[in-house]
Amino acid sequence: MTYTHRVLKELKSPRWYLWGLAGLLVGGIIHIIIVLSVPAQVPFNLFDKVGQFGPDREFHILPPVLPRTEPLADLDPTMRHAICRYHLDQGPVLMRTGIASPFWSIALFNREGQTIYSLNDRTADRGEISMLVITREQLAILRENPPAELEEMIIIETEELEGFALVRAFVPGAAYEPRVMEGLAQAECTSRISSI
Questions:
Q1: Lowest-pLDDT choice from 25-29, 121-125, 173-177
Q2: What is the CATH architecture of 46-190?
Q3: 192-195 long-range CB contacts below 8 Å, 24 or more apart?
Q4: Domains of the chain: which residue ranges?
Q5: Is the pLDDT of residue 1 over 80?
Q6: Total-model pTM
Q7: Residue 84: pLDDT above 80?
Q8: Which residues make Cβ contacts (< 8 Å) with residue 9, sequence separation at least 6?
Q9: Is residue 109 over pLDDT 50?
Q10: Which InterPro entries match (predicted)?
Q11: Which among 131, 123, 93 has a CA at the least distance from the CA of 105?
């Protein structure tokens, strides 16, 4: 038996198959661990990026979405956007908006950019929405002496202390642009509510 035949016979033994399978298994585990740990190692978070648009607790109109110059990722170029960052440890946040557009929506996101709550103009009474973002403890205090307007507000109770709201308004043509921009400029993001 030649040396080549001996090596080939040895390679066909089950022992080598087990070593190969173990190597693939260890390589797969290492690959999965690395892929899952990458997001935790990235220093960027969306909450900090949103803070670059201006002070907290007020809506800031974002620049138009153009190719390669998006203010934030995944924004629709047919929409105009306004954004408001908040910290609930500084008290609840009252948001009011209503835009003369065929469609608009408001969504709340946590610090990581995951949606907490979303609604649109179809939900709005008379085309306007008034909603209060609040923690359970703040709501309990507020209900002891509730303001009159509390009954008409949408209450969003959350344990996420940091987040941001994004208002999107559809602009079907240039004629709608002034009305949409006026509506975005009038959107409120404040802590001013009686009894808080």
A1: 121-125
A2: Sandwich (2.60)
A3: 192/94, 193/92, 193/94, 193/132, 193/147, 193/149, 194/147, 194/148, 194/149, 195/142, 195/145, 195/146, 195/147
A4: 3-41, 46-190
A5: no
A6: 0.74
A7: yes
A8: 1
A9: yes
A10: UCP010244_IM
A11: 123
